[in-house]
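In the current project phase, we have settled on a layout for protein records. A sample record is reproduced below.
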Amino acid sequence: MLQIRNATIADIDALLHITKACAKHMISKKIFQWNENYPNREAFKDDIARNELYVLTNTDKIVGCMVISSVMDEEYKTITWDSPDDKNLYIHRLAVHPEYQGKGYAQHLMDFAESFAIENNYRSIRLDTFSKNTRNQKFYELRGYKKLANVYFPKQSVYPFYCYERIF
């Protein structure tokens, strides 16, 4: 049975296992989106401290995660978004272990985030995805997200990340 709950410090090792497996899986497909610097333990600790990290469990086994934040990262401040810069949510570190991909689990996580946004009167959800990850781009575009601009994360890649927004 699928459930989404807030993450705890005790979940971090499982989450690092998932994100490292995702990084390895993406690298095998020539998608150099995540590496040894990201995601990391400190990012997950900060997410938990802000009560923004959620885990997806399947019969009590953690199979995925995502961050739902109301804080705009510095890199996003140069982007011309389609909605005003208040009452927006930002999705980060969405991951589903490769063994569980293709089963609708990422859809389940995004359904949760979108319902959360609507129920709490947020204007939009904003996120980014790696320019070389066409599967993710299609995933978000099919959900109604609009590609707006590029942002760069030099510690992750020399290639850009595409910023997307969906207004509610």
User: Anything to note?
Assistant: The two ends are 29 Å apart (CA to CA). Residues 151 and 161 are 5 Å apart (CA to CA). Residues 12-28 form the longest helix (17 residues).
